[in-house]
Each structure stands twice: as C-alpha cells, then as structure tokens.
UniProtKB/TrEMBL annotation:
Its main location: endoplasmic reticulum. This is Phosphatidylinositol glycan anchor biosynthesis class U. InterPro entries: PIG-U (IPR009600). It comes from Raphidocelis subcapitata. Residues 218-238, 484-509 are annotated as: Disordered. The keyword Transmembrane helix applies. One of its GO terms (biological process) is GPI anchor biosynthetic process. GO terms for cellular component: GPI-anchor transamidase complex. The keyword Transmembrane helix applies. Belongs to the PIGU family. It is found in: Endoplasmic reticulum membrane. Pathway: Glycolipid biosynthesis; glycosylphosphatidylinositol-anchor biosynthesis. Keywords: Endoplasmic reticulum, GPI-anchor biosynthesis, Membrane, Transmembrane, Transmembrane helix.
Amino acid sequence: MAPPQRQRPPPIGAAGWYAATALAARGALALLGAGGPLLWRPEVSTPLNSLLGVREGLRLLRLGLSPYAGAAVHAPPLVLALHAATAAAPLLYALPTIAADAAAALAIWRLAGLLCRGRSAAEAGMLLSPAALAAAYLWNPLTIASCVAGATTPLENAAVAVALLGGAARNAPLAAAGVAAGAYVGLHPLLLALPICLMMGRGPEDVTCAAEAEAVAAAGPGSSSGGGRGGPAGRRAAPRPIGAGAAAPPFDRARCGAFCAFLVAWCAALLVLSDAYLRAHPQAQCLPRVARWLRGGGGGSSSSSSGGGGGSGGACWLRATHGFALAVEDYTPNVGLFWYFLTELFDAFRPFFKFVLHSHALILAAPLALRFPRRPLFVAWALLLVSAAVRPYPSAADAAPWLALAPAALAPQLRRLRAALFLANAFVLLTVLGPAMWHQWIVVDAANPNFFYSITLLLGVFHVVVLVAGVLLTVRVEREEAGKPLEPAGGGGSGGGGGGGKGGGREAE
C-alpha cells in the first residue's frame, strides 16, 4: 500500500507557474540579446563550456575539417550534435539549455517528492515544497545567466539531477544514464557513482525522521520546561520515534552491480555514438586509436598525434575534451583556483601541482562514504560542493546542483544551522565583488590580477566553510537520532559547575 502513495507525484501549485515564468524569462532574455555580453564573462563562460567553442566546432564541421584539429573546441561530439541546428541562430541558440534547465527542475521536483515519502512538505519537515524547490532552481540567477549564455553547464546539471533522482528511486538504468551523461559533458559527475552505489545498496536516507523525532520530543512530557537544559538530560537528543534500534537493511549487491553494469554500458554507448558522429573525420575518433594501441601497432604515432591540440592529424575528441580539462593547458581567468596559481609556477613544477589539485575531490570521496554510509544523499551533496570548488574551469552555475539539493537532502542539518545568515550574505557578497574586481582589472585598468584572484580564493574558503559546517551538522544529527550525548561527558564546561551546565545546555539547543 505504501509504494502507490510514494509514487504519487507531489502537487505543483503556484510554484509551477513560477517555474514556467522562469523558463519564459530565459527565452525572453535570449531574444533580447542578453547572451552576447555573457559569452565573455569569466564567471559564466569558460574554455570548456563556452558556446563560442561549440560554434567554432560546428563551423569546422561544415567546412569538412575536424573540430578537434585545433585548440579552440573542447565540447564533446554529441554536444556539438545537440547544438547543430540552433547554435548559430540568434533566437534559437538557448533552446537546448532551456530544455536542460526544465529537465533539471523536473528531476529536482520529483526527487524532493520521493524524499517526502508521500507526505506534505510541512509534515516531512522540508524547508521548501518540491515545486518551490524546482522554482527556486529555475529562478537562481546563476542558472539563468548560464542558460542565457548558451553554456553547456546546464546540460551537466540536468544530468546530475537525473542521476540523483535515479539513485533515490533506486532505478539503476536512470541513475547510470545520468552519471554517464554528466561525466560525458563535464567529467566530475563521475564522482557521484560512489554515493549512488550506496543508494542502490540501501536506499537514500530518511530525511523526515529528524522531524518526527522533534515532534515526539515536543509532545513528550517535560520537553517544554527549561529546568533540565543544564543537566545531562538536557544534553541528550530525543531518540528516533520509530525504528531507532532496528538493524540496517542488508546491502543489495545485485542492484549495485546492475548500476555499475549500466554505467559501463552507457559510457560505451556514448563513446560509440561520438565516434559515429565523427565518421567523416577518422583522425578525431578514439576507438580506432584504442584498437591500434591494444594491437601494439601505431601506438607511438597515436600518442604523438594526440599529445596536443594541433598537428596534421589533430587530437581525438576525448583528448581534446576531458584530456584538456585534466592537463589544464589554458590559463584563461575564471572563478577557480587553478589559473593564477599555475601561471605563477615554473613549468617543471606544474605537473605535480596539477595532480595535487585534481586529487582533492578523489581524496575526499572515500572518507565521506566510509563515515556516512547510510547518508548517500549527503555524500552526493558534499562531492558536488567539492567538485564545484576544485574544478580546473569552474563557472558560477556549478554551484546550482548543491544549492538545489541542500533544502531537500539536508533539511535536518539546515534546521540546526546557526550561521545561515552569515553564509548567505557571504555568498551574495562574493557574487558582487567578483564582477567588480574583474571590472577594475580589465575595463578600468585600475587593478591587477591579484584583486580578482583574491575573490576566487575567498570563494574557495567559502566552499571549505560550508563543507565543514555540513559535516559537523550531519554528525550532530546522527547523534541526536541515536539518542547519544552531543558532547563527551565532563567536557562541556569551561568554568565552574554552574557555568559548565549552562554551557552544555547551549550546545544541545
């Protein structure tokens, strides 16, 4: 009886009209020519996601040339195919990105509905209703700017949302398709394979149980009295109302294995389709080079021709897209941490520091999954946040997935967040100071690159602060749900006996 109720789509209401208005606003801004200036903004367009590179690749294809023979095109072949009919049209170029944002909002709406588990948003303790969450994603200025600029980031964000929806629904083909499509466009969504494997094995965490525990605690006897706040009872959280001591469900290895198999199949299908699209340019195909390398013949010529963007043969498309992102060959200023740091290094030291910078996301994935094996949605949120911080060519729209996922997957943590106003103001301040420093440097010529890079460093610090706060709050929620003390016994007081009890009461608030 429960599954039919859970599968019922959440109501849309007025937020659905707000979402439709947001999509219409994107089309209106594109028609008015707002995308032209955004094509040159470092916060929106990068060498990897820019519409300019897509247009350049399509022009080369029309001329009968390989789009990856030079160093200007870094979009995958199927992205070129998706934009083939609209990229050059001044009124239609934003159609693929508008459709991608609509798909992302629909997936977020459905994901939030699944997390509500058949209840209303208020009953489930959600901060926003599913429709309001989808509308908030569409009205996010960062997603609007990226969509109107025609960047490929909305395609990646839509794939991420679909992957999370498939993971929450434990739909292996859908989740694998989302991860494969996201990795095809931007590579970093491949990190989501780990938390989605956890979702396939045990399902997503129940983000409504904390609200149930709070309701039980509020209805319990003596919960409203303040006399026990300083004592040990005041420093303990209310236990979970239902199933607190129940054993964890067994890990479904078959479902996890099916997800991995579908992921490999989808990646192979994308590789084959990409080579098929480039059948007129065999020098840009990847599978023939891999076959030659496996046979042991022509390996040297293949590696030499794919070592750079130029040459008579040019690079295969995989080397020109994901290989370009890993090699970090372009130091165009952006909102990331790579460009200025690598510019200041000697050539001999760059490979080592590129490896160090790239490894941050991989290093954090395993510890997060090991520490929070029953909270895969939180692990996915943390990895999205980390990947937005350590990408070699990030854009402002990379923050949209973790911002959209937080109100649904981290509702218990956000209800305990005390620095919400500070973090929100800091994020708004950084979004204002970044363009201001760029204007002072490039337009007015009254500053130097250090001014703009200082804002990108502060953005990196902001990501670290948010990640640490999320981890600490998640640990706190876990201890509260288990009924454990929020701090070690005897370690809460800094003064005498009365002061220590009062301080411990504040910690349990």
